[in-house]
Write the structure tokens for this entry.
Amino acid sequence: MNIIGIQLDSVWEDKPANHEKARRLIEKAEPQAGSLIVLPEMFATGFSMNVAAIHDGDSRETQTFLSQTAAEHDIYLLAGVVTKDANGRGRNECVVYAPDGREHARYTKMQPFTLGGESANYVAGRDVCLFEWNGFTVAPFICYDLRFPEIFRVAAARGANLMTVIASWPVTREDHWVSLLEARAIENQACVVGVNRCGHDPKLYHSGHSRIIDYSGKVLTEAGSEECAIGAEVSPDDLLAYRRMLPFLTDMRSLSVGD
């Protein structure tokens, strides 16, 4: 099964420009039918706290773009969008559209980035999300979620064997991005797809370094710091065989503090 990560330099709060960037990079990647294509967190706007200006309103322009693009290329398309909660705060979400253009899954970021002001402007999601894709059970996560292994463990306990992390991760903590992605793959015996933005926003530089990692922690492919697409073939049968050979997950226990 083919996975493609699309690493782009998001133009600040400019949805049409970023839709066009994503369209161009997807077309250049020439995805196979049924492939899973992954775009970064808030790809259409950059990591902005200006919810009123960037949320996908009644026109649902970004979600419509994703739906149409998934149908046009006969792919599963996963990407970050911003919607607005009933109370006016934002929802930093990951949405997945199927090859027929229908919404396939939706996840709200469980760990808003307090240091960057996200928790003051966005509501926190309440649970992990799972969806099926070509023999895999996929759990999507977003950026700061990566620092909280317990929520990945919940997903693994519920059957996840492929995990995606879309991000706006800054270069100042690039080594953490790399190490934590590999750790999540190794400890959960799951394929992990980390897709980060690249380039500058008004505050930070993002160096990209997106990567696709297999269930043993091996990096299958990785990006540099420029806009690009990376791709890798993954096999659910190989993953399940590896888990049978090394059945570490069967030894998971639910522990309480003090046990």
The chain has one domain: 2-251.
